[in-house]
Write a structure and sequence with these properties.
The longest helix is centred in the middle third of the chain and has 20 residues, at 185-204. The chain has helices at 63-73, 119-122, 129-141, 174-180, 185-204, 267-282, 292-301, 313-322, 333-337; strands at 2-3, 12-16, 26-29, 35-41, 44-52, 55-60, 78-79, 86-94, 98-105, 111-118, 152-157, 161-167, 207-208, 217-219, 228-230, 237-238, 382-386, 395-398. The protein has a 5-stranded antiparallel sheet with strand order 8-9-10-12-11. Strands 6-5-4-7 form a 4-stranded mixed sheet, with helices on one face. Strands 1-2-3 form a 3-stranded antiparallel sheet, with no helix packed on it. Helix 5 (185-204) packs antiparallel against helix 6 (267-282). It has 3 domains: 2-73; 84-168, Phosphorylase Kinase, domain 1 (2-Layer Sandwich), CATH 3.30.200; 174-396, Transferase(Phosphotransferase) domain 1 (Transferase(Phosphotransferase), domain 1, Orthogonal Bundle), CATH 1.10.510. 23% of the residues lie in helices and 22% in strands. A hairpin with an 8-residue loop joins strand 1 and strand 2. The protein has 422 residues and is an alpha+beta fold.
Length: 422
């Protein structure tokens, strides 16, 4: 049998025992509704199967051709039997609707991360919003290929879960790392520069992340902040998407996102990165509050904290431009990378803000200093996934983010129910 690899560009596969594809007996549409199954022996793919007439029909071919087919199909269709390719090693994190595992590819023996999303969560809503959002994330991620962004490898569908296979990042989230280490200005500059490179790439590809925060920045190498990568595209959209919902995490949301039906752009990610920049500099959040609701309300009213002290003019100028309330005046990612803050002449370690609630920097006009609280770290994280009706009635989904951080409870003891194989 010959496999028509050249037909992949037409979003289908023709299968026939002859070279005349016009009379192909089997035609498989490449979409997320059709599953493809893989059969392996001795670390080699020996056949692939499709459902035909309510039965699973297997097709055998040269192993190298099947391996090539597997690579070509990755990310375009769901494979149906994850245990044929991946073996689970340990659980890395757990959320309300998913778990993250360290897995090993049986063919290459390389390790990856698998996000296992429960089907009962995905299909709980009759309008298929969660399913459509997951598919949108997959479609976005399969097009992303940049050193500053986590790479999607495979997608699988099981009886009870969907599986998104990603490159395994060896370090922890920047949220955890920054709590344990005092960052130098050079390290902060490396982090912001790398994140801006990611935003430039997303801008070129017309993608808005919409949930940049410390938890969604993960170190690819343990202890090396210069290896940080952006993760979690669960809320990402194309700039062409007509819907502009309020979403993200309180404390990082750009002001224009609170304006109903406002056509916000990739500039919302610049603001979120500015909030990250602020917190890395002074170890305090841009918006304070004793509860998530208070943080969100202060975020909406643009009541910013002003802690920056002893920072250089270059530092103050860049963060001011990133946190402009008016998105039209806010600096772009490409412009920010050209800022003197990243210049070769600006190499000193001076500039980390001291903790001083009484020091007010004139960087946020028309805002008032807020009472200082110790930290927001103990406040449960709320990810706003959608807005319905008026601004006052938007839906807050506590714990419903189906992509937990990589470093969440990594020492949890694995139970039998935690196995990736269904």
């Amino acid at each position: 049998m010959r496999i028509a690899l050249e037909c992949l560009r037409q979003d289908n596969i023709h299968l026939k025992e002859t070279v005349n594809f016009e009379d192909s007996k089997y035609l498989l549409e490449l979409n997320f509704e059709n599953l493809i199954y893989l059969r392996t022996e001795h670390s080699l793919i020996v056949a692939f199967g499709i459902k035909y007439n309510k039965a699973l029909k297997w097709f055998h071919a040269n192993s190298s051709d099947l391996q090539h087919l597997y690579k070509q199909l990755s990310g375009k269709v769901f494979f149906g039997n994850i245990s044929s390719i991946y073996e689970s090693k340990e659980i890395l994190g757990s959320g309300a609707s998913s778990k993250v595992y360290r897995v090993c590819n049986k063919l290459t023996h390389r390790e990856f991360a698998s996000k296992c999303i429960r089907k009962d969560y995905i299909y709980r809503r009759e309008d298929k919003e969660r399913y459509n959002r997951m598919i949108q994330e997959i479609e976005l991620m399969r097009k992303l290929d940049h050193e500053t962004i986590v790479k999607m490898i495979d997608i699988f569908e099981g009886e009870k879960s969907f599986y998104i296979i990603l490159e395994l990042l060896q370090g922890e989230s920047l949220h955890s790392f920054s709590k344990k280490h005092s960052l130098t200005l050079t390290q902060i500059r490396q982090i912001i520069n790398r994140c801006l490179q990611a935003l430039c790439y997303l801008d070129i590809n017309n993608i808005i992340h919409r949930d940049l925060k410390l938890e969604n920045l993960v170190l690819n190498e343990q202890g090396k902040v210069e290896s940080v990568k952006v993760i979690d595209f669960g809320l990402a959209i194309y700039t062409s998407c007509p819907y502009r919902q309020l979403c993200g995490t309180p404390g990082y949301i750009a002001p224009e996102m609170f304006i109903e039906k406002y056509p916000y752009t990739t500039k919302v990610d610049i603001f979120s990165l500015g909030a990250i920049f602020f917190k890395l500099l002074c170890r305090k959040p841009l918006f304070s509050g004793n509860t998530s609701d208070e943080i969100l309300e202060n975020n909406k009213k643009f009541l910013c904290n002003n802690y920056l002290k002893n920072c250089s003019d270059e530092t103050i100028d860049l963060i001011k431009q990133m946190l402009q309330r008016d998105p039209n005046k806010r600096i772009s990612a490409s412009q920010a990378l050209q800022h003197p803050f990243f210049g070769e002449k600006f190499t000193g370690e001076q500039g980390i803000a001291e903790e001083s609630p009484h020091e007010i920097v004139r960087m946020f006009p028309l805002t008032k200093p807020m009472q200082v609280i110790n930290s927001n770290d103990n406040i449960p994280d709320i990810k706003i996934q959608a807005i319905r009706g008026s601004q006052q009635s938007f839906e807050q989904s506590l714990g419903s983010n189906y992509f937990p951080s990589f470093d969440d409870d990594i020492n949890r003891i694995r139970k039998q129910s935690d196995h990736i194989i269904e």
